């Protein structure tokens, strides 16, 4: 598919903040597609990350960028959110937030220049569509360009822009999804995937709740060209997720991961904790992404240092019971065996 010659049609989801060069390279070395989650990196950090992945693998890999969003800053909302966060900062031993800036500048232009310079084989975008000339430039540079969609209409917009493939994210998906048309809809992957496959002619990559080979086989049966898995890779040994984050997923059940705007101002799925629950009443009155994300960033970092899971963003999809703590190579081998077995037992069941 797409000339990537993968041994297994499995893409490790780009996960900003938790992907490490070791994770990305291990997936690509095992015959899948590793993806750098570059969303929170500077241009320089992006370049260093790409170079490290190239040092660790000769296989193809991808990178994911956040299309910048510049919502109007509502100072009143920002002040209200700061006030609400102040007791949490105090509880965690932090100083009061006296910052004036409501959001940091996006590194997107520098990141794009680096992706072009380094000729990264695959570049995906989330939180919106890139400019048409960006798509053209990347394609002319032999980079495969991938969009992210959560509805059929968004997938069609990705196709119309001339992108090479589209990742469709069902509502089961962990973390933030790439919705860019209002209102955000919550269509499950079982419904979204076959409808997207029917309506667009570019390859469709399925994401949301897929954790094992049976899930991979099901997505392929529904027409997916490949799957993109986040939570399953987040708990592997090579992932850079906080140990408490991994543990929370490994011990969670299917009801644990809820949608919340509390951490970033944008809807995302994560395991419920004190911060998520206590902020519920304020969810619709928070500053938008990326402003709220910047406001809670220090709290999350401090919680990580203090090993306090109640203030960490514990992103997770809806299938945590299927999570397995192992190396990437072990996970990929297991997926390979399970996919084959799933197709075989499916054939046997049809025969009766
Ligand atoms: C911790 C975490 C971080 C994520 N960060 C990104 C990201 O930076 N870019 C992106 O396109 N998707 C991101 N996602 C969403 C994934 O691309 C994918 O849709 C999701 O993981 C699929 O659901 P699953 O976790 O059940 O496999 C993230 C998901 C998680 C769990």
Task: Outline the structure in words.
- With 352 residues, the protein is an alpha/beta fold.
- It has a domain at 1-68 and 106-241: Aldolase class I (TIM Barrel, Alpha-Beta Barrel).
- The protein is built from 13 helices and 11 strands.
- It has helices spanning 21-29, 43-56, 75-91, 108-118, 132-140, 152-160, 189-199, 213-221, 231-234, 243-250, 274-278, 291-306, 328-351; strands at residues 10-12, 34-37, 61-66, 122-126, 144-149, 165-169, 175-176, 204-207, 226-229, 257-260, 268-271.
- The protein has an 8-stranded parallel β-sheet. The chain has a 3-stranded antiparallel β-sheet with strand order 7-11-10, with no helix packed on it.
- Helix 8 links the parallel strand 8 and strand 9.
- 48% of the residues are buried.
- The mean pLDDT is 96.
- Bound molecules: flavin mononucleotide.
- The site of flavin mononucleotide (FMN) has 30 residues, from strand 7, strand 9 and helix 9.
